[in-house]
Design a protein that fits this description.
about 20% strand, globular, 7-stranded mixed sheet, alpha/beta, single chain
């Protein structure tokens, strides 16, 4: 798939200040003349008839799968698993595409007389979804029909009676999966591919697996040897997931994969100015931008957080494909790249990015400092194909408040990780060797994961490992506007203004560096040549 032209702006003296996201706020920054700004592509036109597109995909699957109806018969055991609350970002406006697909699958099952059906939110080690979050994902009709009877539930990676060990790959990686999924005659997986890292074998082999299996790819070695998580050909994470997924198939787990892609129509009309290029903003857009910025600056972070987390994105469905996992995913990737890829000529010395209020692990929650690092260095840094947007030894400058603040229910092990582990060392290998096993097996963290709404005890380790490739590649990381103590605990440098940060970066990259700003969100992926 060739990258779309998109827009890469060369900043001159007439260029207006550029919008930077700044957590639950906004900043306007005047970039130096000669800088570049990489903008996302315009949203693709959505599918006109989503229900028809879903029906067509289920009736004409890819690969060696028969139409979905061919697998339905009385007495069978059917399991439907679906992506959890971490996707998409922000959550999509109702009806969620997962619910629309699940309803069609259930209608087929009912017509065939299938009555042994269970639905599982594929959490892996993420926090459990609340009733409201589950209702939003699957719809009221499905929730009310299945949840009261225990047939719609969150996956529990710490329930030994609900897991099955299927063996090990040729590379020695354990494969452990939901017992219900293994024992089903058919496992239907419903996915949303927000970025190219999602989907494929990662859906089942990660989403329905416990720590014993995940530790084989969520580790420092894998992250450092994935030169881009978003480019499967250069991702060790992808390679290891695929080995596990193929073993599932060999063990007889029959998966009917349903994958979807969305356009990048991210913000509803009242926040439409956030999707405009600055010089293309209308007088009304500029008025709304300045009014919103001023209001956010005046209100408390808690108030601003409530507003932002209330946003529901008007995404349009751009494709749906179903069938055998690998055949489906090849087509999915083409559709993801069609929306996200923007061609960029050459690398940069300094990469700037404005980090928003949201990442996959703080939906309806707080962006703590570890998640700030993960969003900037684990996700935004890796949004490239080919080679990183910033050169080896370059500097990343991120804007975010990075407050020393944690959600006590969602992120209890994060608090201890920040206070104990990062106070000792920020080196991912030492962190992994010295602390991971204790946190992963801690009974209190296990209890909170299973009975409350807490991320698994090992989860902050994975978020720190997610930064490992960037930390090895870069010569420096600077956070603008962040809490100084929190920033230093992460091992990064702190600056009050962008100009100060650019001056600090010259200590690493020299005078007159090239500067590129990635204007995300909406989502884009740099195709660096």
């Amino acid at each position: 798939m060739t990258a779309r032209k998109g827009l890469v702006l060369d900043v001159d003296r007439t260029t207006p200040p550029i919008l930077f996201h700044h957590g639950e706020g906004l900043r306007l920054e005047k970039l130096p003349v000669g800088s570049r700004v990489v903008y996302p592509n315009e949203p693709l036109e959505p599918v006109r008839d989503p229900e028809g597109a879903i029906a067509e995909a289920l009736a004409n699957p890819l690969g060696d799968r028969d139409p979905l109806t061919a697998y339905m018969h009385p007495g069978m055991k059917l399991t439907i698993a679906f992506d959890d609350v971490s996707l998409p970002l922000p959550p999509m406006a109702a009806p969620d595409i997962r619910g629309r697909i699940i309803e069609q699958v259930l209608d087929m099952a009912a017509s065939a007389g299938v009555d042994d059906v269970e639905l599982i939110a594929a959490l892996a080690l993420h926090r459990r979804m609340t009733e409201a979050e589950l209702r939003h994902a699957v719809g009221d009709r499905v929730y009310d029909a299945f949840a009261p009877h225990g047939q719609l539930y969150n996956f529990d990676a710490e329930d030994p009676d609900a897991l099955t060990h299927l063996g090990t790959t040729d590379a020695g990686e354990e494969v452990v999966l939901s017992k219900r999924a293994v024992e089903s005659d058919l496992l239907v997986y419903v996915n949303i591919n927000l970025v190219s890292m999602d989907g494929g074998h990662k859906s089942v082999a990660t989403g329905l697996s416990p720590y014993a299996a995940l530790r084989h790819h969520h580790n420092v070695h894998t992250m450092r040897h994935s030169t881009s998580f978003m480019d499967p050909e250069h991702s060790e994470l992808h390679t290891r997931n695929w080995r596990q997924g193929r073993l599932l198939a060999e063990a007889g787990v029959k998966v009917f994969q349903i994958e979807t892609t969305l356009n990048n129509d991210t913000f509803p009309s009242q926040y439409g100015f956030l999707q405009r290029r600055e010089w293309e903003m209308s007088p009304r857009d500029r008025m709304m931008l300045m009014g919103t910025k001023t209001a956010l600056d005046l209100m408390s972070r808690r108030q601003a957080r409530r507003i932002f987390h209330g946003i529901r994105a008007p995404y349009g469905l751009t494709s749906v494909q179903a069938g055998e996992v690998e055949a489906v995913h090849r087509q999915t990737l083409e559709n993801v790249y069609r929306q996200h890829l923007v061609r960029v000529e050459g690398q940069t010395d300094v990469l700037t990015m404005g980090l928003p209020y949201l990442c996959p692990y703080n939906v309806n929650s707080i962006m703590n400092p570890i998640l700030v690092a993960c969003l900037g260095l684990g996700y935004f840094f890796n949004l490239y194909r080919g080679k990183p947007l910033v050169r080896h030894g370059g500097v990343v400058i991120m804007t975010h408040p990075t407050s020393w603040e944690f959600h006590p229910v969602h992120h209890p092990s994060y608090i201890d990780f920040f206070e104990e582990v990062l106070a000792d060392t920020t080196d991912p290998e030492i962190v992994e060797h010295r602390y991971e096993k204790r946190y992963a097996e801690d009974e209190w963290y296990r209890h909170l994961y299973r009975t409350s709404y807490a991320y698994h005890g090992v989860h902050p380790f994975y978020m720190w490992y997610w930064c490992a490739h960037a930390l090895e590649h870069l010569g420096g990381v600077i956070i603008v506007g962040g809490d100084k103590a929190a920033t230093q605990r992460l091992g990064f440098r702190s600056a009050s203004t962008l100009n100060d940060a650019l001056e600090m970066a010259t200590d690493v990259v020299g005078r007159d560096p090239s500067i590129t700003h990635i204007h995300n969100p909406p989502m884009l992926m740099a195709d660096v040549v």
